Amino acid sequence: MKEFQIFPEQSSAHAAQVDALFFFILAVSAFFSILIAGTLVYFSIKYRRKSPGEFAVITDSPVWVEVVWTLIPLALAMVMFAWGSRLYFSAYRPPSDAMDIQVIGKQWMWQMQHPQGRREINELHVPLGRSIRLVMISQDVIHDFYIPTFRIKQDVLPGRYTYEWFQSSRLGEFHLFCAQYCGTQHAMMTGRVIVMEPAQYDAWLSGSGSEETMAQSGERLYRQFGCNACHGVKAPTLAGLFGSRVQFASGDSGIADESYLREHILTPSVRTVAGYPSIMPTYKGQMTEDQLAQIVAYIKSLRSYKTDREQKP
Amino acid sequence: MSTLAPAPEAEKRHGPNRNYLNAGYTVRSWLLSTDHKRVAILYLVAVTLFFFVGGAAAVLFRIHLLTPGGLLVQPETYNKLFTAHGLVMVFFFLIPSIPAVLGNFLVPLMIGAKDMAFPRLNLASWYIFMAGGTLMIFATVFGGVDTGWTFYTPYSSMFSNSNVMLAALGVFVAGFSSILTGLNFVVTIHKMRAPGLTWFRLPLFIWAIYATGIIMLLGTPVLTMALALVGIERILRIGIFDPALGGDPLLFQHLFWFYSHPAVYIMVLPSMGVVTEIVACFCRKRIFGYGFIAVSSLAIASVGFLVWGHHMFVSGQSMYGGMVFSFLSFLVAIPSAIKVFNWTATLHRGSVSLRTPMLYALGFIGLFTMGGCTGLMLAAMGVDIHVTGTYFVVAHFHYIMVGGAVMGYLGGIHFWWPKMTGRLYSERWSVLSAILIFIGFNLTFFPQFVLGYLGMPRRYYAYPEQFQVLNVLSSAGASILGGGYLLPFSYLLWSLKYGPRAGRNPWPATGLEWKTQSPPETENFVVTPVVDEEAYAYHLLKESELGTA
Amino acid sequence: MAQLEMSFENIEQQQATSRFGMWVFLATEMLFFGALLLGYCIYRIEYPNAFAAGSEHLNLKLGTINTAILLSSSLTVALGLRAIQLGRTRSLVYFLAATILLGSVFLGVKGTEYFLEYKDGFVPGASFVYSSPSPGIDPHHVEMFFLFYFILTSVHALHMAIGLGVFSVLLVRSCRHRYSAQDHEAIECAGLYWHFVDIVWIFLYPLLYLMGR
Known about the structure:
The complex is a heterotrimer.
Chain A: H1 13-46, H2 63-92, E1 99-106, E2 109-113, E3 119-121, E4 123-127, E5 131-138, E6 143-147, E7 152-156, E8 162-167, E9 172-178, E10 191-196, H3 198-205, H4 214-224, E11 245-247, E12 253-255, H5 258-266, H6 289-301
Parallel strand pairs in A: 1-5, 4-10
Antiparallel strand pairs in A: 1-2, 2-3, 5-8, 6-7, 6-9, 9-10, 11-12
Helix pairs in contact in A: 1-2, 4-6, 5-6
Chain B: H1 9-14, H2 27-31, H3 36-64, H4 75-111, H5 119-141, H6 155-159, H7 164-191, H8 204-236, H9 249-283, H10 290-303, H11 319-346, H12 356-379, H13 381-387, H14 391-421, H15 427-454, H16 468-498
Helix pairs in contact in B: 3-4, 3-5, 3-16, 4-5, 4-7, 4-8, 4-9, 4-14, 5-7, 7-8, 8-9, 8-10, 9-12, 9-14, 10-11, 11-12, 12-14, 12-15, 14-15, 15-16
Chain C: H1 11-46, H2 48-56, H3 60-85, H4 89-119, H5 139-175, H6 185-209
């Protein structure tokens, strides 16, 4: 992490794929740049003006030439587009067995909480070879969680969850940067991603004494905020809710993912569930992002979900 | 160096008897002149001033970035410096530079008209521009703005403690200047062409300015509204863009980029027009593929309105929306590629002369190609995820804006300087400067591609030590580039008093502007010209005009 | 009668250019209002209940009266243009005066509405007061409705005021017989502008006042 480099190391399969596309475009670019520059130099010399009174040779501009040098770049561009799109989709579709880690960004630090409960600041410990999905939110302005070695970044927004995922193929310590200008100490909102052997990761998890898991904290809060008074009684049951499709009173439907759950706790009048009166009170201003994330983790735990873990488009 | 076509004897000492420069010497005659040529000179002085202000900010932060700890200025100051650099350079140099200086000067001349359609609006647009510029200088110098030129919410609307309102107001006001300039161009080109000057006989610079005018007209109002809403949110603390109060920060980004992406075509299309004129002149033949270059300008302008979301691939916008934007972004690259190939083909079997304007034009073609290719990397979403928000993007847009637009601007200034001022400058100094600028530019910005791919984010006042070598290279390049820019400023000014007088058509070039005297009379043409030949009829130039160049 | 400006070859070119210029200017105005309307529509789709609640508190009667007034003023403008096309300067003067009168009444009614809304505490900002009838309606969203209402209608009113200023100048000039059947470019351009302002209102009225009614 510390020595001078010209090219960043690849620490995931995705990183290697990004680099492959990059090198392809680089090769095409180098080819055309050198071709153009070379031709310009060559023509400038070969056809240099030999006397002030010299005229040029009148030439045609045949249309077929234009068509050829339109279609070839177009074809290359479409290859790049298709390749880039595929890569983008795979970057946004975590595997269904990914482990969720909560990230909260605020000026000017990152707070992480692992599902097993351990928290950290500006550092992210992860096990090697495991798919990790980050569930992220900001408490103030827009930030961005950037890990160059995995070639991934995602803006972290206030007011709703955004997601990114990675699977590290390498042990080590890697840079973590905030990549969306967020104020005075934007340059200091950095940290480390530390990839460990799975056994060491487990040891690290239990390292700071016994803590509640996120789901356990969520269960405690669930009771503390009185959710159990209605849910399961006159409000929809939450068992098996996460990941299922919900029918809304408006006629639409949607998947109950983390974003939906958070939104519903804060603004229950939006996207109410069909068949139930809209009487859920709002918890806006009463819960921190931390607590919201823990309650969501609890609801998630009420049945393990099997649906595809796509980020909602 | 050989001399260009000499001026007639009578003009050698005093210049043509009557011209737009000596039509009045009072300050009033300059500040109240509706003559498009004088308005162009007013803009020239203004944008040059703003260029050096924006450049000074860059000098400071490039020195600051020599060390990873960032010891020259405080973090707040650093953030204000890069914001000032962006705001001043984008809105008060790049957007007006070619349109308001070269466009204003040349459009009526090139189409055989005596002035623009609305000369008083033209002068008004300069005053509005100066008002906006004054507000911006105030905002950035006295207190500073620290939001970045992109004003992203909710930081700019709810969190920043700097002169956001004043800076937004400066851009807001300058926007009206842009709209009026665009209006004048579009209407003038439609309605005031000389008899016989059909659309496909127009110089391609006019096509470029026309396309630019359309973008200025249709894009600027949206930015105006976006900034007004930010200001209102700041004053009233209502959540238009703040999620805590029900707003959506991405709405601002969409409104902002809806203008700011086409804005980059406002900055580069006129440059392409200049390059076309120069290449035709210094190959002494008609441009290859006239129709394709003309239509490609319109294609860039129209498709350019549909790609703004490529600035937002990682913003949280819809994945499928992102795909559409990526596809269109690849499409919009094609017309630019067509231009590059057509320019290159023009040299084939031409009579190529490497005068200073041609050096800038060739530099443009090379650097714009490189910048455009890195644009392809950014349009490919999978790669963009890695490099967006890093120095890679910074390098990309500086290759287009500086390696492209500014070099086109300098090429145009050097090409039309004899016409605008009636003077010739020192070829030795101008070639040296062009080379210095080219070297300095590449040394400044190429390392930034590497830095960006390595992962150095932009807008960082301090960075990990391992990035220092590349930062030092970049700052070294910046010092050469900065010095390089001071040279044209000096020798061009010097030429005003001491340069040899220019004749009517020193290069020589085709085009109606070269049929007037140098500098032109106030009313441009005593008799309205009638056009009966194609745009680049170099094969029809008379032997006597070819001079000793 | 009109002075041929230096840049033009003949008066026809000058007149055609003025008209064309006005059309191009109106295109920019469409983008200007369009951006605002886009913002409004996005939030309306997002918070339909809150926006409907806000809309109910607008004064439908005054809004409808204003719509009728503005449409009438477009009619008087069109009739005025027709009059001068037939060379009838006196009729032009009457129709211009009628337009200015109607436009001023519109602004007066609008001002009255604003005053009433101010008294009810609907002006966004520190003095905004709204007690939500149901937990489903967030006062912040209602405030946003009113914000867009005030911005849209005040920008529209500003355009109207500028239009009235222009018509006043044209009225004075008409009294001095400045215009004729062959030469009335300014009337035509001002008319175009006024019709555009009217069309904007035709979008604003249903979007703002008629939601959910």
